[in-house]
């Protein structure tokens, strides 16, 4: 049978990415151009600059994705793009590129929710079995999602303030670590020979999360030490912070797996690259006797392959978005 090739585009934040996915699971190419270097000196993503850089990069990235796959636009069966949520100026660049290609080549166009993309990154390397519970942890999201079947998403818990990745980045900034700080905190926590104990926000009887209290607690420790002219050991701060985040995430995810009778626990999003989290979840899932599915490191952070994987499922169901949709900075699953 003839292969189905999807050309996928992701530009929701500060990564310009294009990928070619064959039959939903084979990555023929997945080109990611990160703007981290550009934004680093501002300590975070500057939306106007991100948007402009997407414009400068998108054409080249698309060509590169096709070249690396050894294919041309004529081989594509459909075009997929992140519709939202994200930075509107960034999303627009991907959406307009996707619409132009789909329109001129008369190809079906599929809009994908960014979080569905993160979740279905797992589809590229694992076989999903429902019902399952997904823990999505990224720079903009912290969600526990119950999925009774493919394409069905029920948010059972979410953050009431900061996203996990956002908290990581803010603490890293206070420790004068480069942006994005998540990987640096993770590394320090792994190396630490001690830990400054931090509080845990359990929010009893709820699957919701809160990280702003923890963030304040960490900043207080730093400020008080600095007022005394001392600098706490960064690794001890990092370890204390990470232990708190990981313990709460693991506890709530484990509880949800039991309560909902999930056949699998699925981890997704940029923070899914966190080694402490991966280790602790692996241990908990072994205790529960439930498989833990995680994307490989390079598919945790934003990339177009995950958008292609999610789009293929829609394509298979005949769920084609068409040309008549907008980039949506706020979009529910
Ligand atoms: O999913 P992603 O690439 O972008 C969003 O959709 O938000 O996630 C980026 C976030 C950043 O906050 C970054 O600091 C965090 O993921 N991150 C990590 C690690 N690697 C990336 N956080 C903790 N530990 C890591 N190893
Ligand atoms: Zn993301």
Automatic annotation (TrEMBL):
Class of this enzyme: transferase
Q: Which reaction does it catalyse?
A: L-threonylcarbamoyladenylate + adenosine(37) in tRNA = N(6)-L-threonylcarbamoyladenosine(37) in tRNA + AMP + H(+)
| Keywords noted in UniProt | Acyltransferase, Cytoplasm, Iron, Metal-binding, Transferase, tRNA processing
**Where does the chain bind substrate?**
136-140, 169, 182, 186, 274
| Highest taxon above the source species | Bacteria
Keyword field contains Ubl conjugation: no
Cite the GO molecular-function annotations of the record: iron ion binding; tRNA N(6)-L-threonylcarbamoyladenine synthase activity
User: Where does this protein hold Fe cation?
Assistant: 114, 118, 302
Which segments constitute the Gcp-like domain?
27-308
Instruction: Give the UniProt subcellular location, in the record's own words.
Output: Cytoplasm
Give any Gene Ontology cellular component.
Answer: cytoplasm
Q: Which Pfam families match?
A: TsaD
Family from the record:
Belongs to the KAE1 / TsaD family.
Protein purpose: Required for the formation of a threonylcarbamoyl group on adenosine at position 37 (t(6)A37) in tRNAs that read codons beginning with adenine. Is involved in the transfer of the threonylcarbamoyl moiety of threonylcarbamoyl-AMP (TC-AMP) to the N6 group of A37, together with TsaE and TsaB. TsaD likely plays a direct catalytic role in this reaction.
Protein name in the entry: tRNA N6-adenosine threonylcarbamoyltransferase
**Species name:** Paenibacillus lutrae
């Amino acid at each position: 049978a003839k292969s189905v090739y999807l050309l996928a585009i992701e530009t929701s934040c500060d990564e310009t990415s294009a990928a070619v996915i064959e039959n939903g699971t084979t990555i023929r190419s997945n080109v990611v151009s990160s703007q981290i270097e550009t934004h680093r000196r501002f300590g975070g993503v500057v939306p106007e600059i991100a948007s402009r850089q997407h414009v400068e990069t998108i054409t080249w990235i698309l060509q590169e994705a096709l070249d690396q796959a050894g294919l041309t636009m004529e081989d594509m069966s459909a075009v997929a793009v992140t519709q939202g949520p994200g930075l509107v100026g960034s999303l627009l660049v991907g959406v307009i590129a996707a619409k132009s290609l789909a329109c001129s080549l008369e190809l079906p166009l599929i809009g994908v929710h960014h979080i569905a993309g993160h979740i279905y990154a797992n589809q590229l390397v694992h076989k999903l079995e429902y019902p399952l519970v997904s823990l999505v942890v990224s720079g903009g999201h912290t969600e526990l999602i119950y999925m009774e079947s493919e394409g069905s998403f029920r948010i059972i818990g979410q953050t009431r303030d900061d996203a996990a990745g956002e908290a990581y980045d803010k603490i890293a900034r206070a420790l004068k670590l480069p942006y994005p700080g998540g990987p640096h905190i993770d590394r320090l926590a792994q190396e630490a020979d001690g830990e400054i104990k931090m509080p845990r926000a359990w929010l009893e009887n709820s699957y919701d999360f809160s990280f702003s209290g923890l963030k304040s607690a960490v900043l207080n420790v730093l400020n008080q030490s600095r007022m005394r002219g001392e600098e706490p050991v960064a690794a001890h701060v990092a370890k204390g912070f990470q232990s708190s985040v990981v313990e709460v995430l693991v506890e709530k995810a484990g509880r949800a797996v039991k309560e909902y009778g999930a056949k699998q626990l699925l981890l997704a999003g940029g923070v899914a690259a966190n080694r402490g989290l991966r280790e602790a979840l692996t241990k908990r899932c072994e205790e529960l006797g439930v498989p833990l599915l995680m994307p490989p490191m390079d598919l945790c952070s934003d990339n177009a392959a995950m958008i292609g994987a999610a789009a293929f499922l829609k394509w298979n169901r005949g769920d084609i978005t068409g040309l008549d949709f907008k980039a949506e900075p706020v979009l529910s699953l």
